[in-house]
Amino acid sequence: MITPFTDAGTLDLEGARRLAERLVAGGCDGLVLNGTTGESPTTTDAEKARLVSAVREAVGDRVPLVAGVGTADTRHTIEQALAAGKAGADGVLVVTPYYSRPPQEAVEAHFRQVADASGLPLMLYDIPGRTGTRIEPDTMLRLAEHPRIVAVKDCSYDFLGTQKVLARTELAYYAGCDEHVLALYAVGAAGCVSTVANAVPGTFAAVLDAFDAGDTAHASRLQLRATALIEAMTGAGLPGTVTAKALLSELGLPAGPVRPPLLPAGRETAGGLRALYEELVSGS
Q: May I ask the CATH class of domain 13-214?
């Protein structure tokens, strides 16, 4: 979920409640807060906790909340995980430490320390394109032995490595790249953590529901129908945060500005996103 801001750039908690209600009503059976699309690099620890509390108020116990707590510092990550639990999170999303590019032994130690300290279930976030460091499949296999490391948000773009871990562990995998939602689900993933679903939650719920019902052809059609919007929002050179906020603003939904160093999408981009959105929902 994006983190909505007011026009002045402050946290828009009422907008966050509205967005959370819309996503749950649209078919999301869980919400991830304070992730990449939620602008976690530029929100404060206090803002992160306030966002979790506000969304918890809005959705109650209807869906689980997973809070992004990953930083480049193990101590700070643990602090954020503890704060997320107090604010009402049911689990935490922990990204690989970035910039320092720790070796695999250090990556494994980082996740184990957070899992030992937090008491909450952990979803590992494997996105080497942003962090510079992969959680290698063999490291995943070892981490899967920890009782509180239960899930993975997969943005590795290593389908073979992912299948290797799926075949040998009980980790619940979630596609973190919208173009992989159906493909990963078809080989045993549990679902997706989606940027594009900020705008069209029902589309991805329908893809997974169709697959569960055995109508794989319909699931494929739905996934392919979403391709143009997926590309425009996540593969056209702008961060998903920027495109998601631009589209939600076009739809009259809470979004607000992005925080620097990000810059807002231009009017032409926003209009193009709106056109692709309309085309997708009119064909659903």
A: alpha beta
Catalytic member of 48, 153, 174, 245: 153
227, two tokens: 């391709």
Instruction: Based on the residue annotation, tell me whether 98 is a catalytic residue of this protein.
Output: no
The DSSP-derived string for 39-64 is TGGGS-HHHHHHHHHHHHHHHTTSS-
Rounded Cα–Cα distance for residues 84 and 67 (Å):
6
Instruction: Name the phi and psi angles at 103, rounded to 5.
Output: -70, 170
- The verdict on whether residue 37 carries a ligand-binding annotation is yes
Q: What number of other Cβ atoms are within 10 A of residue 98's Cβ? A: 17
| pLDDT per residue as tens digits for the range 115-168 | 999 999 999 999 999 999 999 999 999 999 999 999 999 999 999 999 999 999
Gap between the Cα atoms of 258 and 137, Å rounded: 34
- Whether residue 193 is annotated as binding a ligand: the answer is yes
Which tens digit of pLDDT belongs to each residue from 157-166?
999 999 999 9
Digit-coded pLDDT (tens) for 223-248? 999 999 999 999 999 999 999 999 99
CA dihedral 131→242→122→74, nearest 10 degrees, is 50
d(CA 3, CA 33): 8
The reply to whether 125 belongs to the active site is yes
Q: Are the C-beta atoms of residues 247 and 273 closer than 8 Å to each other? A: yes
